[in-house]
Design a protein that fits this description.
alpha+beta, 4-stranded mixed β-sheet, 60s Ribosomal Protein L30, Chain: A
Amino acid sequence: MNKALLLVAIFFSLQTNAQPSDCINEIKENLVAFSKKSVFLNAAAKKKIDSVVIVFKKNIGCRIVITSYGNNCLTCQQTSWDRGYSVIKYLRQIGIDSTRIIMWAAQNVGDPLTVLIRPGLPEEDGPSLVEPYIPCYSYHSLTKKRCKGSRNH
C-alpha cells in the first residue's frame, strides 16, 4: 500500500512541475503595441493583456513569457526593458504571481514598438525580471536621479 501511495505522490508532483499542454493550446500569442515615444500601457493594451490573463488564471500551472525588442543601442535596450516591465507591472497589479512570469528584454528580432506575450513552453525557464540596462534612464522611477549627459549611447 505504501508503494501505491508513493507512486501517486510522485505522479502529482511531476504534474505540478511540468507546463500543462493546455497552456500552449489555450493561451495564444499576443502583441501589445506601444506608441513610438511611450513605455506605458494604454487602455487598449490593458484590454489585450486582460484577455490573455482570463485564460492564464484558469491554468494554474502555466507560465507566461514577456518578450520585448530593441537591441540597437543602450537606450534602445532600456526602452525595451521599460516596455516589458510595464506589462509585468500590470500583470502583478492584477494578481499574477511573478514566479509565473519569464522576462526576455532587448531581443534582436521583433518590432521594438511591441511586447510579445506568450505561454511558456514545457521546461522553459528564465528570470521573472531581468535587471534594467540603464536604470537612471528608466521611466519607471527606479532611481531618484535621471542620467546626466547625452542619451545616445
